[in-house]
Inverse folding.
């Protein structure tokens, strides 16, 4: 990946601890590794603390940036290991991406004298789908939100919708701002194809999960085929046990086996899948900042997406998104999708969208100086 010339004035590497669950292929993880790969050489010394105890799919990509990985299983020993590593590494920055749980890690970092402590919110909800709400979980969230207010020097969210959904983390002590994630576009212009070379393919990208709502997407595609449109549908993403069986069964029930392909994880989403697809269908019920929408728009691929606040936020900045409400029938989704399949974007249209994307704050070129500034000097508390 090409490194940016931005902020070449950086002299000494800034030691940054990044806290994630794992480095499985996901929006937050992918965006951060892309950013690290584009930083000026020697500007940042990165250490990933991975709370699942697993490194994840992107571990090798992270190491290729020079980062060091520390799997830390969730056990009674975690606080001891965490403090010990902070003592050894002596970071200037602890940048935590584990939603409200960041509060506990930032509190320890404050006690250890880490001057820059960032809580980075990626989701509009901290409650897992299907999990029963209890008073202990509510109390835990309130305590963790208080810790963020008390110990974070900076609170950032990947979108305004995420910030609005987490009002308990705002305080006078730490600022709370939107900090958009970014997508790399290096070399993308060489991968964009003309309309005659496009496939009559609709694609959905994201883990197979009820929140991503692939069951609705299958229903929509079935409606598209019933109208006599010739197309194929690729579902790309990590299967979730149980839900993937539901999706496969629905595909079979609708007789779509010849037209729908469950692809699993793919590493060529930006180099092949999106640049050669007619449209992206994104039916998620909840999002933070939908990175796959950004990737599609950078590749010039039009999007049909659910009408939820994060999608509306991206649509307010970039053209190419058609929003459909969940209160609309399946036929309304098909109405939006069919014209895109019939007339895939031309090469010139894709390149024009790429130019517009590169001028936006979602482009990695615009993101790097802001990221370095985020990790820059602040007054120690």
């Amino acid at each position: 990946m090409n490194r940016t010339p931005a902020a070449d004035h950086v002299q000494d590497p800034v030691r940054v601890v990044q806290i994630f669950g794992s480095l499985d292929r996901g929006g937050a993880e992918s965006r951060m590794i892309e950013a690290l790969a584009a930083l000026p050489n020697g500007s940042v010394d990165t250490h990933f603390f991975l709370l699942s105890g697993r490194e994840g799919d992107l571990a090798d990509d992270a190491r290729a940036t020079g980062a060091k990985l520390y799997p830390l299983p969730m056990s009674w020993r975690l606080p001891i290991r965490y403090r010990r590593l902070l003592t050894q590494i002596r970071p200037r920055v602890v940048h935590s991406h584990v939603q409200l749980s960041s509060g506990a890690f930032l509190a320890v970092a404050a006690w250890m004298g880490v001057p820059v402590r960032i809580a980075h919110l990626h989701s509009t909800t901290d409650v897992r789908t299907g999990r029963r709400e209890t008073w202990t979980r509510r109390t835990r969230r309130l305590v963790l939100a208080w810790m963020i207010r008390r110990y974070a020097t900076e609170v950032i969210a990947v979108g305004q919708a995420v910030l609005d959904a987490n009002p308990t983390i705002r305080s006078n002590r730490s600022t709370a701002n939107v900090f958009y994630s970014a997508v790399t576009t290096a070399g993308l212009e060489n991968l964009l194809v003309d309309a005659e070379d496009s496939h009559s393919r609709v694609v959905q990208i994201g883990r197979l999960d009820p929140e991503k709502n692939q069951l609705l997407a299958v229903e929509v595609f079935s409606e598209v085929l019933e109208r006599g449109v010739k197309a194929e549908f690729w579902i790309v993403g990590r299967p979730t046990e149980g839900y993937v069986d539901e999706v496969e069964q629905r595909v079979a029930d609708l007789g779509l086996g010849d037209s729908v392909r469950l692809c699993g994880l793919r590493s060529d989403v930006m180099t092949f899948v999106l640049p050669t697809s007619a449209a992206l269908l994104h039916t998620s019920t909840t999002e933070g900042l939908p990175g796959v929408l950004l990737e599609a728009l950078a590749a010039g691929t039009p999007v049909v997406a659910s009408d939820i606040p994060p999608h509306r936020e991206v649509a307010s900045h970039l053209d190419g998104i058609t929003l459909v409400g969940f209160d609309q029938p399946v036929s309304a989704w098909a109405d939006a999708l069919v014209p895109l399949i019939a007339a895939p974007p031309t090469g010139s249209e894709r390149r024009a969208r790429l130019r517009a994307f590169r001028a936006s704050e979602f482009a990695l070129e615009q993101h790097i100086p802001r990221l370095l500034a985020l990790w820059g000097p602040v007054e120690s508390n």
User: Anything to note?
Assistant: The first strand starts at residue 14 and ends at 20. Residues 184 and 364 are 5 Å apart (CA to CA).
